[in-house]
Amino acid sequence: MEVRVVEAGGLKLRICIHPCVYNPSDDTMAAVEAIAKAASLGLRAESVVDLGTGTGILALAAHKILAPARILAVDHSPYAVKTARCTLSTAPAVVARCNGSTCISGGFDLAISNPPYLGVDDKSLARGECEEWLYTSWGPTGLLEDVVAAAPRLARALLIVYSTLSPLDPERELARHGYKVLARVEKRFFMETIRAVVLERRG
């Protein structure tokens, strides 16, 4: 396993990297920046859950920025669980193997998720052991819809990452449950815009 230092949102984050786990990319950096922006606007969180934690970088960023007393990071991939435990070894975090939000009852201040927001239909891509886990993560429709549906029972605030090419607009869906945008970071590319949004539900 490789150890790497990544700079994002004004932070230097020491993370672990595994070939079978999605490596931090532009959407990850946007998510870290969104957490920092939301914190500067008053977001506070004593408890954080990271759904589909991958390398654990977003849980680590939340630890550095928000200093929560409790962090739960979950992923269905055994490779991701091992990698996130390495990344979060100095944080007050529990890392567990779990498929999405199925093992979580809720009651968190903040839920974090950078889910697969675009589907993958070609199963032939899953040729090896790593690819099988990556394909199961992305699947034919992505996991954005599952995360949005679970959000109201999970936390009063949510960081969600999505693309303008995603089949679902999470901001519109979450507004129906009383969530309002606190902070947004956008990264523009050729055919799409990646959005990392922190929404909060009050009252």
Question: Can you tell me about this structure?
Answer:
By secondary structure, this protein is α/β, with parallel strands linked by helices. The chain has a single domain, classed as Vaccinia Virus protein VP39 (Rossmann fold). Helix content is 31%, strand content 32%. The protein has helices at residues 26-40, 57-66, 78-87, 129-138, 144-154, 170-175, and strands at residues 2-8, 11-17, 47-51, 70-75, 93-97, 108-113, 155-163, 179-188, 193-201. The strands form 2 sheets. It has a 7-stranded mixed sheet with strand order 5-4-3-6-7-9-8. The longest helix is centred in the first third of the chain and has 15 residues, at 26-40. The chain is globular.
Which helices and strands appear, and what pairs or packs with what?
Blueprint: E1 2-8, E2 11-17, H1 26-40, E3 47-51, H2 57-66, E4 70-75, H3 78-87, E5 93-97, E6 108-113, H4 129-138, H5 144-154, E7 155-163, H6 170-175, E8 179-188, E9 193-201
Parallel strand pairs: 3-4, 3-6, 4-5, 6-7
Antiparallel strand pairs: 1-2, 7-9, 8-9
CATH topology group: Rossmann fold
Please tell me what the overall shape is: globular
Mean pLDDT: 87
- The helix content, as a percent range, equals 25-40%
Strand runs, count: 9
What is the succession of H and E elements?
EEHEHEHEEHHEHEE
Strand content: 25-35%
Q: What is the number of helical segments per DSSP (H or I, 4+ residues)? A: 6
| Low-confidence runs of at least 5 consecutive residues | 122-127
Tell me the count of domains. 1
CATH architecture label name: 3-Layer(aba) Sandwich
Largest sheet: 7 strands, mixed
